[in-house]
Amino acid sequence: MHPNHKPTGRSNRLESDFYSFQDLLTPVEQDAALRIRDFMEREVRPIADDYWERAEFPYHLIPGIAETGVIGTMWPESARFPNSALFRGWAALELARVDASFATFVGVTSGLAMGAIGVGGTDAQRAEWLPPMGRGEIIGAFGLTEPLAGSDTARGLRTTAARTGDTWVLNGAKRWIGNATFADVTVILAKDTADDQVKAFLVRKDAPGFTATKMERKQSLRGVQNADITLEDVEVPETDRLQRIDSFKDLAGVLGPTRVGVAWEAMGIAAGAYEAALRYAGEREQFGRPIAKFQLVQQKLADSVADLTAGIAVCVRASQLEEAGTRGDAQASMAKAFCTARMRAVVARCREILGGNGILLDRGVARFFADAEAVYSYEGTRDMNTLIVGRAITGHQAFV
C-alpha cells in the first residue's frame, strides 16, 4: 500500500491474503482493519528500521495507534466499536506485517495487562483502569516470567507476596517484561506466602522498591523495551490486588487468547516478509530478467504463501472457537506452535530469495527474519506448546 493511501472501502486485500480471509470480517471490522493498516503504513513503516536498529521505541506514536481503536478491543469498558475475536486476531496480523515490535507493544498493554485486569479485576477495578488504558493514556506491562522461571512459571514462581492487614509486600525479580521500562502500571504475579497460590497485583511505576532496568543487546524485537524488574519490599494495597485471580489457573482467560494472538502475530511477520520478497523478486534482475521468472524463486514464493494460508486458516478457526467460548488451552497451544513454525519457514525462504541483500534492513526482510526468533519462543516455546497438545490428544502428561 502506498504510504499516502487513505482507506476508502473494503476492497483492499493484502498480497499475502491469498484466500481472502479479510472478507470474513464484518464491514465495521474491515474498515477498522484498514484504519490500522493506514496508520502502520503512514506512521510506523517509514521509521521502523531506524528505531529497531537503535533499540528504541517511538513513544510519540502511542496516541495515534490508540486512536485507531486497536487497544482494549476485548472489553466493553474500552472497546470503541463492536468487534470479534477474529477481528482482534486480524488486527495483530496488520500490526506485525509492518513492525513486530510495535505489535508486541500493543499485545502487552492490550492483551496481557488489560487482559489481566479484564479477567481478574472487579467491576470497580475494570472501570478505573480499562477506559484510560484503551485510550493510550495509561500503558501496561505484565510481569510473569522470572530469571529462573520461564516454561515452569505455573509451579516455579519465586516472587512472593506476604499480606499484613490491608497491605501486601512483594519481593522477587522478573525478566523479559515488555513495556516495563515506561509502563504506568505492571501486573505482577506472585505467590501468596500464606497459601502458596498465585495472586496478581497492580504495581505502579513510582512504587518504592520497584525498579525496571532495560535489557540490552537483544538481536530480536529490538524495539520492544524489555526489562529486568526487581521488587524489594514493594507495598501494594489490597485494593490494587486483582480480586478474581486466586491461582495460576485463573490466568487461563488471559494467556489463552494472547497465545492465539501471538499465532496471528506470527502470520503478520510472515506476511510482511513474503510481501517484501514478492516485491523484490519482481524488481531484481539477474541474467537479464526479473528473478520472479525463475522456477526456483516461484517455488519459494508459492511454498511461502501456502504456509501463510495454512497458518491463517488455523488462526481463523482458533478465533472462531474463542468467539464461541469453546476454544481449549490445547487448541491455543497448537495454533501458537504451528503458526510460529510456519512463520520461521517463510522468513527463511524470503531471506533466501533476496540473497545477500536479505541481511540488509532497508531491503525489508532482515528485521522480520530476526524478529521471528523471539516470537517463536515467547508465549510458550514450541516444545511446551507441543506437549500441551500431546497431553490433550493422548491423555498422558509428558512434563518433567
From TrEMBL:
Residues 141-234 form the Acyl-CoA oxidase/dehydrogenase middle domain. Residues 33-137 form the Acyl-CoA dehydrogenase/oxidase N-terminal domain. It comes from the Bacteria. The keyword Flavoprotein applies. It holds the Pfam family Acyl-CoA_dh_M. GO terms for biological process: fatty acid beta-oxidation. One of its GO terms (molecular function) is flavin adenine dinucleotide binding. SUPFAM superfamilies: Acyl-CoA dehydrogenase C-terminal domain-like (SSF47203), Acyl-CoA dehydrogenase NM domain-like (SSF56645). Transmembrane segments: none annotated. PROSITE patterns: ACYL_COA_DH_2 (PS00073). Residues 254-393 form the Acyl-CoA dehydrogenase/oxidase C-terminal domain. Keywords: FAD, Flavoprotein, Oxidoreductase. Coiled coil: none annotated. Its cofactor is FAD. Belongs to the acyl-CoA dehydrogenase family. This is Acyl-CoA dehydrogenase. It comes from Glycomyces albidus.
